Amino acid sequence: MRRSSAQGVMFGQAVANVAGISNSDLECMDILYLEGRVTAGRLAEVTGLTTGAITGVVDRLEKAGYVRRERDASDRRKVFISVVPEKAAEIGKFYVPMQQAMEKVWSGYTDDELRLLLRFANDGYRGVLEATQALKGVIDTPPEKRASLKMKPPLR
Fold first, then answer.
1. Which of 67, 63, 59 is nearest to 84 (CA)?
2. Does residue 123 share a domain with residue 59?
3. Which among 40, 59, 92 is the end of a domain?
4. Alpha-carbon gap, residue 80 to 36, rounded angstroms
5. 40 near 77, Cβ under 8 Å?
6. b/e for 4-18, b at 16 or more Cβ within 10 A?
7. Kind plus residue range of the DSSP H or E element containing 70
8. Whole-angstrom Cα distance, residue 50 to residue 47?
């Protein structure tokens, strides 16, 4: 799992390089794509970044043409961020070989095995979210008080 995760990060970095954006901006764009049209506050919430950092991300992605800001028709003070579909498709083409490779892998599994793997992936995602929240608790704790926090060692 660690090797696959690390390779996914490296693949994403290569895509980001080709797209001319940073890997973290690409990941934010992917989260935005999955979330749909959201406010900067919501994007900050799901990424764990500050609203100030999100402003920088959105500024860079907007300048590169990958996202756009849209005012809410009923409340002009509210601004939504959305992915520009045509630009997302440009990036998406770089993922086609990976998608094809994964479809080849998945074709070797039964429906029951795929359901188990999907459950594993979803449970793993929830575990990563939980671990991220715990780490944020450490980050939000002043350095002088961090030593008293009880962190479990990793499983081997």
1. 67
2. no
3. 92
4. 10
5. no
6. eeeeeeeebeebbee
7. strand 67-71
8. 9
Mean predicted lDDT score pLDDT of the chain = 90
User: What single-letter amino acid sits at 5?
Assistant: S
Beta bridge partners of 71: 79
Q: Where residue 61 falls among pLDDT bands split at 50, 70, 90?
A: very high
- Looking at the domain assignment, is residue 132 inside a domain? yes
In a domain, 56, yes or no: yes
Question: Helices 23-35 and 85-92 meet at what angle, rounded to 10?
Answer: 120
Task: Indicate which CATH number applies to the domain containing 24.
Answer: 1.10.10.10
81 class by beta-carbon count within 10 Å (0-12 exposed, 13-18 middle, 19+ buried): buried
Cα distances (angstroms) measured from residue 119 to each of 21, 39, 79, 89: 33, 30, 35, 28
pLDDT at position 68 is 96
pLDDT digits over 92-122, tens only? 999 999 999 999 999 999 999 999 999 999 9
